[in-house]
Amino acid sequence: MSTALDLFGTDEPVTPAQVLNFGPVKFSVESGALRHIHVHGLEAIRNIAFVVRDRDWGTIAPIISKETVDQNDTELRLSYHAQYQNQGAILDVDIVVLTTAEHLTMSATGVTTGAFETNRAGFTVLHPIDGVAGQPVRVGHSDGSFEKARFPDLIEPWQPFMDITSLAHHVGAHRFTCQLDGDLFEMEDQRQWGDASYKTYNRPLALPWPYKIEDKELLEQSVTLTWEETAQPQHAQADQISQTNATFPEMALVITPEDALRLAQSPSDLDYVAPQRLLCHLDCALGDTAAQFDALARAQQACPDVMFDLELICVCAADPAPELHTLAAQMAESGFAPASVLICPSVDRGSTPPGSEWPPCPPLDLIHICAAMSFPNVLRGGGMVSFFPELNRKRPPVAQLGFVSHGLCPIVHAADDISVMETLKAVPHITRSARAFIGDIPYRIGPASIAMRQNPYGDRTIPNPTQSRVAMADDDPRHRAHFGAAYAVGLATALAPAGIAVWTPAALYGPRGVISQGASWPIADALRALSTLAGQPVQTATQTGKTARLSVGETTFEVNLTASPVDDLNAYEWRQTANTE
Question: Which pLDDT score, from 0 to 100, does residue 579 have?
């Protein structure tokens, strides 16, 4: 039997979930959050939680105490105390969940000790996307008016709904109304970060952040879910992912100039996974770009049978031409000859949230005109080295480009095991939304590892010295365990129908890599098998809540995305068989 270390790369205990039932209502409680709220057997709400974020949008984990559950013939009552600590200040919150046969209410009363700095403190409500995306919703506003609208089908770059006091939507034969009180709420389309949900949250992003809840200041909020039977039909979403003449993408692994020097000394490090390409990260903000090019050139000389792609992070002054001309000259002098170059301004590594001022940067069309002059004989691309929200909000001049790229990360908002795997359901929504504005241009994805390479939403990625499940961490132990291998197969399944040209599921070295001191991790076995599929036709790609199945060419992959056996697959097990279809 596999140990926790085998499955997750860490001995950290999995946070236990308590399942509660009352009448038609069923939900689980995990670290104070209500998850997967089902009414009459159908999921109405994905999550209701009191969430506190620090100045880097990292989640402050609560210390839960005094938890009690009481039930009688008319109601179920759950209560607990949550304490949040940040920079010496404390936010104490008492939470009460009251469930009857007609409604569920979650209320919070909090008070601070010291001035408590935060980007957000209050309730978030997550609506699921299956059977909800593109469907009608009735939005209540603070002036008493109501708006008939639809949940976005294609992913919205900005908030689809503002000034929210209530949301009403249909699931099966019931209409569900979610009433929000105690603050100003708005919604963001969380699919663009990979979450399988629409998130309604308190405190508009246009207001300043971080902000302080002053000493002894009182905070009161509540969320009430009610339901009534209607004749509205259920809108089901099939598990099958559509595909149109897609071929499976080539695989790349990330290297830095430091990695390149190591690879030059040990080129056989590529042999096990055998990727078709290497994505070479060069950051002009680090300086000494000539030495960075020289390092990449040494790796290319040592590994002539793999394609090298350049991910070039430029400073991009008001006139980007001199910088790009100098970089092209340095590259030529080093002898480094990439198959493609992705140009990304350094400031675009940071996100520009709604209501924020865009940082100084030359227009993207000007940057790519200058890039075409400096790199005339190299396939040139644009996009983001961060994630889809940044691409969606600052769309590249597609007509000037040979490809468009962005990354993925499943631990932007939550890092528990279930949430990470649930992000795979959002990936087809991302690729479909991207195709809506990039068209048929070659489309690249990556890096797309569990851990976050760099944080567009704060000054740093979140440290993870205890090897725990931490949102926005640059090192996630599950990447190096069977969980990471299962995630990679699931990601391949989610991406396969979209006609991706290149995907980058890992680095070569380091915490997001495939090898360490010559040894390989389970993800290396999965990626080795998947790399052989490049260029072959995609037959089918299917996701359920627990498994994924990918058929490419003459090969079929099946993977269990859960910690429990499913059919004849053990926890996070995958297998490869000859395609009999």
Answer: 76
